[in-house]
Amino acid sequence: MASTISKVKQKLKQVKFRHLKAYLSDNLKADPRNCTHNEISTSINGEVGVCAYEGSTIYGTVCDTNFGKDLSKDCGLFCPKRSKEELKREFYDFIDNSSIGEVAKEFPDVTALIWVLNTLGADDSDIDLEEHYEKIERLTVENHQLSTVVEDLKKLLALQNAEIHNSETENKDLLVQLGELNSELKVSKNSLLTEVELSLWQRFMRWWK
Question: Is 184 exposed, middle or buried (0-12, 13-18, 19+ CB in 10 A)?
Answer without folding.
Answer: exposed
